[in-house]
Amino acid sequence: MSKFTLAVIIGNRDFFPDFLIREAREDLQKLFHEFDIQPIWLSDDETKLGSVETWNHANQCADLFKQKKCEIDGVLVCLPNFGDEKGVADTLKLSGLDVPILVQAYPDMLDGLNAERRRDAFCGKISVCNNLRQYGAPFSLTREHTVHPLSDSFKDDLRRFISICRTVNGLKKARLGAIGARPNAFNTVRYSEKLFQAAGITINTIDLSEILGTIQKLENEDPRVKEKLDEINAYADAGNVPQASMSAMAKLLVATTDWMEELDLDATAFQCWTSLQQNFGVNACTLMSMMSENFMPSGCEVDISGAVGMYAMQLASGMPSALVDWNNNYGDDSDRCVLFHCGNWAKTYLPNPKIATAPILETVIGKDTTHGALEGRAPEGPLTFCRVSTDDTRGCIRTYFGEGALTNDLLDTFGCRAVARIPQLQSLMRYVCKEGFEHHVAINLSHSAQVLSEVFETYLKWETYYHQQPE
């Protein structure tokens, strides 16, 4: 991930001791060095110790932020004392910044509540947040109302805030590609391009025939085809795959990645059956897995909404995502289920993956045309699940998400598969069905639900349902 840049506002009330501001700048400099954060803030000779209190200070700070607007990932509001709520709110309004905001307030010490040492930031934070709400500026809070910036608690807050910023900023400018038409049988993956565009998410489309037309111009000896063929062989065990199918997959990977690079796309959703098998003779699963593993998430069945969920969790966690089916019950265990797809999960989910065929598709179109599906079992570990969906009739984007775990419970089947344990799973499934969500869900080997909650609800204003575990 690239270097992170924070705009910093140090709030001040003039009748509090100056050395509190000086201490805060020193604390923050240590923190930023540890986290490799580039701060953008007033110098201590531009305003009193670089703090913001008056209208004039707010204008100076806002001008600085406007000059660096393209670099700024988020805003930290630091309150070493009560602070001036108007100075903070005016700075943000004048700057025009549209990035997440974190409000931090210093704690008072019980032996320091005299006039020489007291801070009153506990109270001042409430006033600052009140003004931000009045000004229409969404913001995030630390877990503890007051917290020292060098404490472990605040460092955890900052890590989470960095993830929030990356996810919000990434989604607001996301560019996705829809490759081909959705399978006609799957009304469930329909979505609204206009609702996504209103949220900053741009969808680009290409007909599958254009991809296949590009492939026709590629020769087996083309250096790019050979390069992709080597990448596929290095990626997964291809010992049982005919060479003709391997060459076809390499050409498909060249054509797809060329199109993505041309349009600067972040993620894709693929028409993965049955036109591709019938007209080209392979599955796209392996190349989709490779793209997801390389942080270019790719979803099945032209499920653009599913790919948005994959991308959101990738941004939040820094790990690849996968798109799965809520597929089977796990015996009579009401909190476990089987997650499954034909074979396009990122390699992170498939230790020692093998390139195989797709047994379910084989029953309809034959085995020889389905080489390219991956087979493997996901390891046990943390799990976050997420679904993004457009509700066209209500004109909104809505989501659900939560956490659980992947387990090592016995599972005898094929394809990409996993067993998930999710507390209160039956309640979740009732919600999914009652609210008409899709059968696809994105998963990530992390615990990122708190980040998603803040991103979707606070900053993107999407409708959210957080399936939280019981206390």
Structure description:
This protein has 471 residues and is α/β, with parallel strands linked by helices. It has two domains: 4-172, Rossmann fold (3-Layer(aba) Sandwich); 175-467, L-fucose Isomerase, Chain A, domain 2 (3-Layer(aba) Sandwich), CATH 3.40.275. Helix content is 39%, strand content 23%. The chain contains 15 helices and 18 strands. The chain has helices at 18-35, 55-67, 85-95, 121-134, 152-172, 193-198, 208-216, 223-235, 243-263, 275-280, 285-293, 304-317, 359-365, 425-434, 449-459, and strands at residues 4-10, 37-40, 74-79, 101-105, 140-141, 175-179, 202-206, 267-270, 298-299, 321-330, 333-341, 354-356, 373-377, 381-391, 396-407, 416-421, 440-444, 463-467. A six-stranded antiparallel beta barrel has the order 10-11-16-15-14-17, surrounded by four helices. The radius of gyration is 25 Å and the shape is elongated. The two termini are 34 Å apart.
> Unreliable runs, pLDDT <50, ≥5 residues?
none
Task: Please tell me what the overall shape is.
Answer: elongated
Please work out how many helical segments DSSP would assign: 15
- Determine the CATH topology of the largest domain: L-fucose Isomerase, Chain A, domain 2
Distance between the termini: 34 Å
Strand order of the largest sheet: 10-11-16-15-14-17
